[in-house]
Amino acid sequence: MTVRLKLGAQALAVGLVIGLLALLIWKVAQGSQKEAAPGKPAPNFTLGRLDRPGSLQLSSLRGKAVVLNFWASWCYPCKREAPALQAASRRWGKQVVVLGVDVNDFRGDARGFMRKYGLTYAVVHDNKNVTSPKYGLTGLPETFFLDRHGRVVEHVPGEVKAAEIRSGVEKALRA
Amino acid sequence: MRLLALALAALVLAAPAAASENHPTQGELESELMCPICAGETLAQSTSAPAQRIKAYIGRRIAAGDTKSQIKDQLVVQWGQRILAAPPRHGFDLLAWALPLVGLLGGAGIMGLLAWRWTRVREPEPAPQQWALNGHPLEPDEERRLDEELARFDG
């Protein structure tokens, strides 16, 4: 093999390794940048609804405060917080939209959960991992409070209590 | 005769594959499907709640007589391609199957070529000059002086 060809092959191999390393670093950096954080606009999404036919786009809720709750029917804390979220939907319904996002769940199981806990607020279904990376979900449940302009004002990881819902809603309405 | 043997072999291999497709087992499907919330674990390896739900779903579909493809297709509709442990063999995903084979064959080809080049018979090296000291030929002057010295001994 001529010297030039050998050097060319070595340069190509080194270039390939550097390129792959750069891709890895970029991918890790992308993954660590959570888009949804207090003060930042909530990442938009469009998902199919479970409570009625059709789909719902988050940005269509601008003008109202939003309680965005991620849950699943197999999640025990989700069962405990469901009544508080339903109560909040009834109490603040005119100014606040409670929006449930059912993740990693069979549609049938999710609808069964909604019937069992009497959930009447809007629920969308995400089984294709659309929202989880954008909102940086580390577990279930997680709740985000959005103001009328679609900005995140509060984030509650884990089960959300009635007092935390009230505090989050007040913060969202004040912003 | 060889063709007959090949045909028989194909039939022998095809039978279990067809049985697996038409009458899949729980364990088989669980090892070919991924847990949706666990990093890199198949359903067989996971005890998470969603994995248990999917396992139960598989059990119901097997009992209902669905084929392996039907069960997998239904799960892909519900959960997306990420539920599959192996990428499908069509479209862009075919690259995941083809590239390792191409790499293997390409690597084998390069190694073969290099081995051939290394083992090629080289041209014989020229014989060393008669009056060489440590492999280096003598200068004409040195050669003449050496001849004179040797002549004195002969003389």
Structure write-up:
The complex is a heterodimer of chains A (175) and B (155). With 175 residues, chain A is of the alpha/beta class. Chain A is 42% helix and 22% strand. In chain A, strands 2-1-5-4-3-6-7 form a seven-stranded mixed sheet, covered by helices on one side. In chain A, a hairpin with a 5-residue loop joins β6 (142-146) and β7. Chain A is elongated and about 80 Å long. The termini of chain A are far apart. The model of chain A has no long low-confidence stretch (mean pLDDT 93). Chain B is mostly helical and 155 residues long. In chain B, 61% of the residues lie in helices and 3% in strands. Chain B contains six helices and two strands; from the N terminus they run αααααββα. Chain B has helices at residues 2-22, 26-32, 49-63, 68-79, 94-118, 140-154; strands spanning 132-133, 136-137. Chain B has a two-stranded antiparallel ribbon with strand order 1-2. The N and C termini of chain B lie far apart (86 Å). Classes of the chains: A alpha/beta (175), B mainly alpha (155).
Give the tags:
heterodimer; A: 175 residues; alpha/beta; seven-stranded mixed β-sheet; 5 helices; 42% helix; 22% strand; elongated; B: 155 residues; mainly alpha; two-stranded antiparallel sheet
**Largest sheet, strands/sense/barrel of chain B:** 2 strands, antiparallel
Q: Provide the helix percentage of chain A.
A: 40-55%
Give unreliable regions of chain B as ranges. Answer: none
Largest interface summary: A-B, 12 and 12 residues
The total of helices of chain A stands at: 5
Q: Would you list the SSEs of chain B in sequence order as H and E?
A: HHHHHEEH
How far the N terminus sits from the C terminus of chain B, by CA atoms, comes to 86 Å
Q: Report the portion of residues of chain B in β strands.
A: under 5%
Task: Give the overall silhouette of chain A.
Answer: elongated
Structural class of chain A: alpha/beta
- Largest sheet, spatial ordering of strands of chain A: 2-1-5-4-3-6-7
Report strand order across the widest sheet of chain B.
1-2
Radius of gyration of chain A: 21 Å
